[in-house]
Each structure stands twice: as C-alpha cells, then as structure tokens.
Amino acid sequence: MATPKIRSANSASTSTLAPDLSKNITLKDGQMYEVSLVKSENLSSKAQDAIFRLFDDNMLALQRNSSFPYTEQSKREELFDPDARYVLIRRPSPSFSASKNDSNAPRITTSNGKAKGKGKGKDKEVQIDLTQEELMGFCGFRFDTEETLSSRDAEVVYCYEVQISLKSRGMGLGKTLLDVLKSIGKRRQLDKIMLTCLKNNESALAFYAKQGYTPDEIDPTRMNEEKSTDSDDMEEGSDTSDEEVDYRILSKSLK
Q1: Please, are residues 232 and 197 in contact by the beta-carbon 8 Å criterion?
Q2: Rg (CA), the chain
Q3: How far is CA 78 from CA 17, 75, 215, in A?
Q4: Cα first-last separation, the chain
Q5: Is the Cβ–Cβ distance between 196 and 247 less than 8 Å?
Q6: How far apart are CA 164 and CA 58, in angstroms?
Q7: What's a Gene Ontology MF term here (predicted)?
C-alpha cells in the first residue's frame, strides 16, 4: 500500500522531482545531449512508439523464453502505466539553446520548439514528441513500496527499464540515467532503488554491479543461498531449496 511519501512523489511535478532537468550534457565524444524527465501520460504516440521499439530491439530475444515474455500490447500497458515516468536522453532540439536564466525564454518547450509557458508560475506538463532516431536511451521507473524481511515495507524507486540504443552505447549514458534516478530518490528521501534483471542478461548484470547494485534481501537466489548455508546442520536428505528463478532482484541504498 502506498505510503504518504510515495503518494507525494507520485503527485509531484517533473520540475519538483528533478529541478535541474532538462539540461544538456557533454559526453566523451564532445557532442551535447539533452536529458529530461517526463510523465508517461505526456509522451506523444510517436514518443511511445520510439520507447517501445528501442525496448523491443534490445530485449525481445532475451525475454522470449524467460519468466517475462510479453506481447506488444502487454508491454505497452506496462511501459505507459499512468504512474510511470521516464528519464530520456536524446539529441537536443534547437529550442533548448535558450538560457534558463533568461526570464523571457520558454520554461518548457515541445520538441518542435513551441513554447508552452513563460516565466514563473505553476509548473506546466507538456506533451513530449520524439522519434526513434532522436532517442538515445531511457530509464523508466515508478515510486512504490516493496516488501522486506522486516515488518516495514521499503519506500523505493523501482527501475523498470534502462535501455540504450545500439549506436549510443559506450558513452556512459546508462550511468547518467541511474545517477538521475539516484538524485530523484534521494530528494524524495526514499530507501533504495530496486530493479529486476534476467540472469541471461550478463552484460546488464555486470553494469549494475559496477554501479553499486547488489542482490536485494528479497532476491530469491540470495535467499536460497543463505537458506542453504543456514541448513548445513539439518538432517541428511532434507530439501531446503526453492525452485530456481531466471532473474535477480537488485537494489542500491539511498541512505
């Protein structure tokens, strides 16, 4: 059940969650890219198509015979749940060259540069439009509670997807996405970031380990390993192992 802190996070505007976004960053190749935060409900149909196609290109073969098979309909329902939010990395639009310090510059713009609000005032959430060619990577997440081994549920940022396009890999974009997620979680004073990763996705597991993610206390494989260790002195022939799963549950503390 959602706690007051989770309900507050779910109702917060993107500018409240990440006041330093949108912004341009310069990567190793010297080019600049735009990082922004958007609610799923503010993604245009074209932007939703770009996100789904990038996910499908990266994950179809890995998930086809896994515990998480999907159809296009089922995956779109998950990706674009009303509570989902996205950190997007894209090639910057020309309109983003306006300075944030310019009080006459639009606060928020669409990808075609049409202003949707000026100066100070209530935050305006606008529709985001982008193509698959513009989209370099994304992180989809939600705010939620997760069970723990104690009586208190954890308040978490649950990372559903980190996807980088093939031609945009090796630039540090995955780390950039997770750093934004960490900043958002810390600002909301949540307990940790959590995610699920297939065991056959070895490159992703290695990446998450490098970023400081470890098997969560409720990760089934970790629990089985600890149970096996604890039962070394049990009677011979007793079976304490649970059915093996094909995924890991990882987490990183925000405390």
Answers
A1: no
A2: 20
A3: 22, 5, 24
A4: 22
A5: yes
A6: 8
A7: histone H2A acetyltransferase activity
User: What's the CA gap between 16 and 10, in Å, rounded?
Assistant: 11
Residue 42 token pair: 């503010």
The angle formed by the CA atoms of residues 219, 225 and 228, to the nearest 5 degrees, is: 135
Written as tens digits, the pLDDT of the chain (255 aa) is 789 999 999 999 999 999 999 888 887 778 889 999 999 999 999 999 999 999 999 999 999 999 999 999 999 999 999 999 999 999 876 554 443 433 333 333 333 333 344 344 345 677 899 999 999 999 999 999 999 999 999 999 999 999 999 999 999 999 999 999 999 999 999 999 999 999 999 999 999 999 999 999 999 999 999 988 766 555 555 554 567 999 999 999 999
